[in-house]
Amino acid sequence: MKDRKTVILEAAARVIACRGVRGLRVEEVAAEARVSKALVYYHFKDRAGLLRRTLRFVGDRAERYTRGGGPGDAAPRGPGPGDLAPGARVPGDPLRELERRLLLEFQDLPEVRENSTAWGELRASAVFEPELREELARAGREWVREIADLLGPVGPAVPDAALVSAAERLTVLVEGLSTRWLVGLLPAGHAAELLRGAVAAEAEGLRRAAVRTACPAA
Amino acid sequence: MKDRKTVILEAAARVIACRGVRGLRVEEVAAEARVSKALVYYHFKDRAGLLRRTLRFVGDRAERYTRGGGPGDAAPRGPGPGDLAPGARVPGDPLRELERRLLLEFQDLPEVRENSTAWGELRASAVFEPELREELARAGREWVREIADLLGPVGPAVPDAALVSAAERLTVLVEGLSTRWLVGLLPAGHAAELLRGAVAAEAEGLRRAAVRTACPAA
DNA sequence: GTCTATAAAGCGATAGAC
DNA sequence: GTCTATCGCTTTATAGAC
Predict the structure, then answer these.
(1) Cβ contacts of residue B158 below 8 Å, gap of 6+?
(2) What does the H/E/C string look like for A63-118?
(3) Is B201 in Cβ contact with A204 (below 8 Å)?
(4) Least Cα separation, residue A85 to chain B (angstroms)
(5) CATH assignment, A1-77
(6) Which residues make Cβ contacts (< 8 Å) with residue B154, sequence separation at least 6?
């Protein structure tokens, strides 16, 4: 049972996806949600409030499709092999699992495009609006932590700092590729290929680091 | 002898650096340049014209500090070893030269910040404004080509496609790191460290690719 | 909670004098 | 080329009825 407030948030997400944060007009959101302008102000106080809540709303959705899981999710049906038992972590190559996870950002689904666009806008806007930075930083840390954990199994005894550095590079790269993909400068297939190359390069680097840690003499 | 037109362009670059492309107000540019609003319209026709010319102006400046060169330049005094004879290409390790080149984007100079900010805005805006894409694509291709050429010397007989892929990843990474740096989420030192790690990982990957090309049996 | 109507402000753009 | 003054549209935000 969707209340009007949620309807407005979904509408705002769609508007941001095609006009950008700074192109968002309260009136257009109201029209998209089929409510009056005044109702938007009633629920969200002002334009800035609407923006804040929409960004959080979008962030919550991203967690849903990102960690495959709960019922009712938009099934993250990656480009990989066939389906998996629900909830089962992919057993095979941990690198493949990591790739699959990162490639979710390039699914051509409306929800994914909306989320990627909104996050791109958030990043870009944060350069000029300091109050957006904390949320951005928090989301970034979680995202890096998740990827670092997925990187762990590539080899035994890799120092955590190295995992985090590699994860930081990979997440930054995914963000950049995502922007280019959204702009239309980079087909999803090419983005995927570049990403796989980076994953391979980072994994190789980590294995070498592990060797140096294990036997510093080498 | 700066004419008013140039003064206005410089003012516009500063305004973009602290308000963003989409936060730019013609009136603020006029005030920053200490001229009347009408004069801005006289020289640039309308807001869009001002934006176009400012972006080109900023792009030209970037080439100046990026390829070290002509007289009167802001000397690109990197964090590396001491000065070099003017015009001399660094002779030593080609990887160091590449790193130096990429690290120029993190110099804490007003001009560099302004340029990075403006390009970040251009990228972000292009998601919603298709007419910006061509210039973005052209600049991107040149930048990738330059980095690919710098990557060439890491090993003999590396296929060009591999160089281009690595260069694409590195440029995307630099853009992403630059954004985080501008936002204040990432100190320049940490950005430099991550970048060095990526350069090392990519170089190692290229060397392995070269080996596979040379003796496919391996 | 939701609407219609309207106030108030912001901002791009132009007219016309010098 | 440069200024002052102003027009007119767009957009945010509020008042007040239901």
Answers:
(1) B151, B152, B206, B207, B209, B210, B213
(2) HHHHCCCCCCCCCCCCCCCCCCCCCCCCCCCHHHHHHHHHHHHHCCCHHHHHHHHH
(3) yes
(4) 34
(5) 1.10.357.10
(6) B94, B95, B203, B206, B207
Distance CA A125, CA A136 (A): 10
| pLDDT tens-digit readout, B162-197 | 999 999 999 999 999 999 999 999 999 999 999 999
Query: Per the structure block, which two tokens stand in for B39?
Result: 């004069």
Say how far apart CA B169 and CA A190 lie, in whole Å.
Answer: 11
- A75 has pLDDT over 60: no
What confidence score (pLDDT) does residue B69 get?
45
Question: Do A40 and A30 meet the contact criterion of CB atoms below 8 Å apart?
Answer: yes
Q: Among all chains, which residue has been given the structure tokens 């600049």?
A: B139
- Residue B173 CA to chain centroid, in angstroms? 12
Q: Which long-range contacts (CB under 8 A, 24 or more apart) does A125-129 make?
A: A125/A21, A125/A22, A125/B20, A126/B183, A127/B20, A127/B117, A127/B120, A127/B179, A127/B182, A127/B183, A128/B18, A128/B19, A128/B20, A128/B23
Determine which of B14, B129, B168 to mutate to test the interface with A (most A C-beta atoms within 10 Å).
B168
CATH 1.10.490.110 corresponds to the domain B89-218: no
Between helix B160-183 and helix A188-214 the angle, nearest 10°, is: 80
Instruction: State the Cα–Cα distance between residues B25 and B47, nearest whole angstrom.
Output: 8
Q: Is A164 on the interface with B (CB under 8 A)?
A: no
Mean pLDDT of B85-99: 71
pTM of the model: 0.86
In chain B, where the domains are located: 1-54, 89-218
**What would be the CATH architecture of the domain defined by A88-218?**
Orthogonal Bundle (1.10)
- Residue A55 CA to residue A121 CA, distance in Å, equals 10
Q: Out of A128, A175, A182, name the one closest to residue B127 (CB).
A: A182
Let me know the angle formed at the C-alpha of A130 by B136 and A37, rounded to the nearest 5 degrees: 85
Q: How far apart are CA A164 and CA A143, in angstroms?
A: 11
Q: A63: which 2 tokens?
A: 């967690």
| Topology (CATH level 3) of domain B1-54 | Arc Repressor Mutant, subunit A (1.10.10)
Residue among A23, A140, A183 whose CB faces B185 most closely: A140
